[in-house]
Amino acid sequence: MINRNRLIKLTQSLIRIDSQNPPGDEREIALFVKDYFSKYGIRSKIYEFKRRRSNIVAVIKGKGSHSLLLTPHLDTVPSGGNWSFDPFCAKVGRGKIYGLGATDCKCNLASIMEVMGGIIEEKVVLPYSIIFAATADEESGSVLGLTPLLDKGILKPSAALVLDADENQIITTQKGLMHLKIKIKGKKAHGAYPDLGINAIDIAVKVISKIKTKKFSYHKNKYLKAPTVNIGTIKGGDKVNVVADWCEFELDFRFLPGTDYRELLSSLQSTLRMHARQFNIEITGIQKPYYISEKHPLVKYLKMAFINVGITPKVCGSEGATVISFFQKKGIPAVATGFGSSSCAHAINEYVIINDLYKGTAALDNFLKIYQP
User: Residue 140 gets which letter from DSSP?
Assistant: First the structure.
């Protein structure tokens, strides 16, 4: 049975701990979680891949060999300015808990902690083991958190449930991403005689125009919008009266399941060859798109659990990259869900709606008790 008042107070306690990233320091909040679990006799261990960048892992043993990972993150984005109140006040009002990380994602962390404590209190033995991993550095790419935990074999679950979403979503698919840096080389000349040079900025403008108007073929997905490309940065040239002999810009491609990133890369290379004599493409980041069938037990029982507590399930996709794709590399099925409030993540005056958090936590509790691997 979920204790509403305890859940509220737990969420408040987590919000009051500063875990902004940057600068990045999850030690205090990890120790808080460790202390909380120790009161229930749940053993946990802290892993750090850089000093004070703490990850905490705990296990509740069940029957059988199957294991389910529950993973939120410990860090938040920086608070920034213009808040109407102290970002760490964790005040309650109008049915909401306010503060930095309330939605992203300390409400989800509190939810899992409440549910795991309840499982111990009720002496429930599940037909699988729960692995809990609250991770560092999610807001800066997870290089000090989930990635090394998986790569080093510290986490080897049979399946994973990522708790980092809003309004009871069940995220089953997401776009892939490819980040590229394109460098174009031209020929320097005096700005009064541009015909004597080759302007790399002019070439970049032509290439970008072609990229923005190109129609990419793709397999439609009912949960995702069409592919996108964003020009994130551009710079070039040395001085206003000199023909620019260099220009570089960065591209952000988001593409759907069924598309190979190499197709996009090949198309870009063809466009560049049409306009530039010398260029270089550097891949600075890549994640493959992700998809899991709605017939998978993770999705099936999550939908059932939401219905059991009176919530209409929201199966959906993610336009942005989430950590569920990290599990794809390891062959681990994963979905994401969560109980935050829409449009609150990374925003000033962040909050979580208490009723949504309470009902979502009840759904999580029900899911863990009905889930059959």
Answer: G
User: pLDDT value at position 59?
Assistant: 98
Query: In angstroms, what CA-CA distances link 197 with 240, 244, 264, 304?
Result: 14, 8, 31, 66
C-alpha triplet 211, 213, 214: angle, nearest 5°:
65
The answer to whether the CB of 4 falls within 8 A of the CB of 364 is no
Domains, in order of start, for the chain: 4-174+290-370 (3.40.630.10), 176-287 (3.30.70.360)
pLDDT in tens, 180-196: 999 999 999 999 999 99
Output DSSP code: residue 143: T
How many angstroms separate the CA atoms of 57 and 252, rounded?
A: 33
Q: How far is residue 74's CA from residue 83's CA, in Å, rounded to a whole number?
A: 21
Tokens representing 350 are: 């962040």
User: Per residue in 68-94, pLDDT tens?
Assistant: 999 999 999 999 999 999 999 999 999
DSSP state of 217: P
Give dist(CA 74, CA 163) in Å, integer.
11
Can you state the percent helix, strand and coil of the chain, rounding each to 5?
Answer: 30, 25, 40
Residue recorded with tokens 């260099």: 246
> For the chain, what's the residue count?
373
* Cβ contacts of 314 within 8 Å, gap of 6 or more: 167, 168, 169, 170
pTM summary value? 0.90
Label residue 26 left, alpha or beta by phi (over 0 means left) and psi (-120 to 50 means alpha). alpha
193 token code pair: 């005689």
pLDDT of residue 53: 98
Contact 169, 108 (CB under 8 A): no
Structure tokens at 259: 């598309």
- pLDDT for 320 equals 87
pLDDT at 79: 96
Distance CA 156, CA 69 (A): 9
Amino acid at 309: V
Cα-based torsion angle of the residue sequence 84, 87, 91, 95 in order, rounded to the nearest 10 degrees? 70
- Which two three-digit tokens encode residue 1? 């049975």
Residue 214 is classified by DSSP as P
Closest C-alpha among 263, 259, 256 to residue 222: 256
Query: Average pLDDT in the 307-311 region?
Result: 97
Per-residue pLDDT at 266 exceeds 90: yes
